[in-house]
């Protein structure tokens, strides 16, 4: 599928199987990928349930279950709502009606570089999550001896299987499958979240174009042409807000994972990093999730600020020198511009700087709770 925007990121998501290769592509491959990469989640969950290990000594396993549930939840809803994301990108790639924004190619190229940088950081975090448990196997065995623990060493997380897998090559095969699960789930969810970031940034570029168009309307001497340009401007404004509504309807389900899981996950990571018997990959897990939280929240805040700046730009223009009919239209524009596009992450929260504080506050509460229980 050819698009003008975010070609590199869409290529990555296509290779991972979450993005359609053509208009007629089905979601079968996406669901098979989600199913095949759910081994780590179900295996770790069964390990906790069968062995009844829900205390702070097994915080690494609880952390893995929470993180894997979060990414599988995100991938599932991203796939379910994929048609909406495709429609958004199609509309953002269409310049036939309102024209291409000034310096669009430069902005698009810069955004692609920035998104690629985030992909590199994401893969560094994934490598850390997968590799560190294997690298620090010796430290894990020493911690077991010193603290009289029975933790399984050398794996991303212990899983329950109906047979003993502690010997070679079964343990290596389990580690390989766990590594596959981590790479697929974290890469798919992380890169697909950058697709959402890219669409919001391109919407910001379009809104900035809208602001630049308004002074051109005021400079038009012919009243009839000026009214026609204003009508076209209003249609563009409504079209952009229509895309914003589609974003909210499409993204809310998968982004609700931030409210549901990320605060709990950060709380588990906080407790895990304070334990001497930690699996050592918690820091990389935190960095990967924290990057996604920061990028999404900052982008959502930028979208809010840019929407509100439309009203400020219109108000600061020379609209009061125009005819009465034009002034009445501007009043309606100013009223509409006071309501920004909000990308909701649940019934009461949306992407903004406040979401970061809310997640960290939740994490702090869970750190205190888990530490008290321990």
UniProtKB/TrEMBL annotation:
InterPro entries: 7tm6_olfct_rcpt. It is found in: Cell membrane. Keywords: Cell membrane, Membrane, Olfaction, Receptor, Sensory transduction, Transducer, Transmembrane, Transmembrane helix. The keyword Transmembrane helix applies. Pfam families: 7tm_6. It is a multi-pass membrane protein. GO terms for cellular component: plasma membrane. The chain crosses the membrane at residues 29-50, 114-136, 172-197, 251-272, 284-304, 341-367. GO terms for molecular function: odorant binding; olfactory receptor activity. GO terms for biological process: detection of chemical stimulus involved in sensory perception of smell; signal transduction. Belongs to the insect chemoreceptor superfamily. Heteromeric odorant receptor channel (TC 1.A.69) family. This is Odorant receptor. It comes from Tribolium castaneum (Red flour beetle).
């Amino acid at each position: 599928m050819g698009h003008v925007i975010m070609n590199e990121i869409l290529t990555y998501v296509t290779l991972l199987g979450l993005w359609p290769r053509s208009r007629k592509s089905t979601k079968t491959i996406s669901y098979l990928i989600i199913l095949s990469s759910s081994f780590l989640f179900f295996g770790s969950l069964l390990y906790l349930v069968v062995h009844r290990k829900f205390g702070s000594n097994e915080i690494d396993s609880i952390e893995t279950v929470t993180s894997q549930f979060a990414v599988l939840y995100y991938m599932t809803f991203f796939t379910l709502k994929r048609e909406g994301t495709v429609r958004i990108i199609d509309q953002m790639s269409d310049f036939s009606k309102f024209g291409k924004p000034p310096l669009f190619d430069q902005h698009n190229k810069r955004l692609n570089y920035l998104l690629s940088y985030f992909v590199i950081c994401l893969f560094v975090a994934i490598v850390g999550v997968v590799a560190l448990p294997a690298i620090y196997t010796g430290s894990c065995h020493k911690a077991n001896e010193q603290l009289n623990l029975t933790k399984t060493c050398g794996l991303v997380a212990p899983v329950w299987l109906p047979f003993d897998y502690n010997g070679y090559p079964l343990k290596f095969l389990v580690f390989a499958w766990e590594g596959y699960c981590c790479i697929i789930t974290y890469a798919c969810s992380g890169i697909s979240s950058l697709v959402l970031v890219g669409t919001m940034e391109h919407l910001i570029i379009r809104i900035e174009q809208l602001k630049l168009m308004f002074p051109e309307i005021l400079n038009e001497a012919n009243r009839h042409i000026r009214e026609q340009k204003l009508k076209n401007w209003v249609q563009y404004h409504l079209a952009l807000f229509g895309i914003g509504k589609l974003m909210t309807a499409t993204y809310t389900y998968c982004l609700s994972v931030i409210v549901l899981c990320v605060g709990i996950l950060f709380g588990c990571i906080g407790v895990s990093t304070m334990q001497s018997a930690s699996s050592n990959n918690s820091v990389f897990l935190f960095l990967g999730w924290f990057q996604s939280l920061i990028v999404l929240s900052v982008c959502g805040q930028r979208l809010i600020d840019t929407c509100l700046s439309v009203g400020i730009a219109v108000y600061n223009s020379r609209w009061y020198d125009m005819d009465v009919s034009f002034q009445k239209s501007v009043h309606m524009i100013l009223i509409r511009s006071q309501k920004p596009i909000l990308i909701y992450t649940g019934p009461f929260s949306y992407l903004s700087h406040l979401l970061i504080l809310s997640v960290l506050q939740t994490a702090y509460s869970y750190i205190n709770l888990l530490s008290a229980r321990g």
